[in-house]
């Protein structure tokens, strides 16, 4: 329960570190880093629970979405697809991450599964909300952000490796894991 609450708190904090862009309704934020990190450090059910709590908090009006936004209008607005993508991406990342502490595996899972899930959901929502064709929606909400999101995957993977090594050893995620025998 504590791990879930901490992940929700970090998601909320990441929402306030945004950079608005003039050419798109999407803002630059640390969401991608934190969403990927949630999938990398929590088991699937806990990851989904953390994301669902975060989305519910925003849906009922707490200012936890990007830039302090809140409410169903933001969740179901033009950029709301990212939020639904977060919910779908975290269990996939968690299920596919493999053994703890493997940077390349973490990076591959977040970059090849997590980010595409988030972006596809964002493209679909932009098409539904604004009537964009898929290619136009891809150009508005996905293409400009792919390089940065890939870099954020690298950061999340490095943090995931570090946390998955440090927290169990410190007893922060329950009893320390027993060392495997060679």
TrEMBL record:
Presence of keyword Transcription regulation: no
MF (Gene Ontology): biotin transmembrane transporter activity
Chief place of localization: membrane
Compartment(s): Cell membrane
InterPro entries xrefs: BioY
Coiled-coil segments: none
Transmembrane segments: 44-68, 75-94, 106-128
Cellular component GO terms held in the UniProt record: plasma membrane
Keyword terms: Cell membrane, Membrane, Transmembrane, Transmembrane helix, Transport
Membrane topology reported for the UniProt record: Multi-pass membrane protein
One Pfam family hit: BioY
Official protein name in the record: Biotin transporter
Protein species of origin: Candidatus Avichristensenella intestinipullorum
């Amino acid at each position: 329960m504590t791990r879930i609450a901490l992940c929700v708190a970090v998601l909320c904090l990441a929402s306030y570190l945004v950079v608005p862009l003039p050419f798109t309704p999407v803002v630059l934020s640390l969401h991608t880093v934190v969403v990927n990190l949630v999938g990398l450090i929590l088991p699937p059910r806990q990851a989904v629970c953390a994301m669902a709590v975060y989305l519910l908090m925003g849906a009922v009006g707490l200012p936890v979405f990007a830039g302090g936004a809140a409410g169903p209008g933001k969740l179901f607005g033009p950029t709301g697809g990212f939020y639904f993508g977060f919910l779908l991406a975290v269990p996939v990342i968690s299920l596919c991450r493999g053994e703890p502490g493997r940077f390349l595996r973490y990076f591959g899972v977040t970059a090849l599964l997590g980010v595409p899930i988030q972006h596809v959901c964002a493209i679909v929502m932009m098409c539904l909300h604004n009537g964009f064709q898929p290619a136009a929606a891809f150009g508005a909400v996905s293409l400009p952000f792919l390089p940065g999101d890939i870099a954020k995957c690298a950061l999340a993977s490095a943090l995931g490796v570090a946390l998955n090594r440090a927290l169990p050893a410190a007893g922060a995620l329950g009893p320390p894991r027993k060392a495997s025998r060679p």
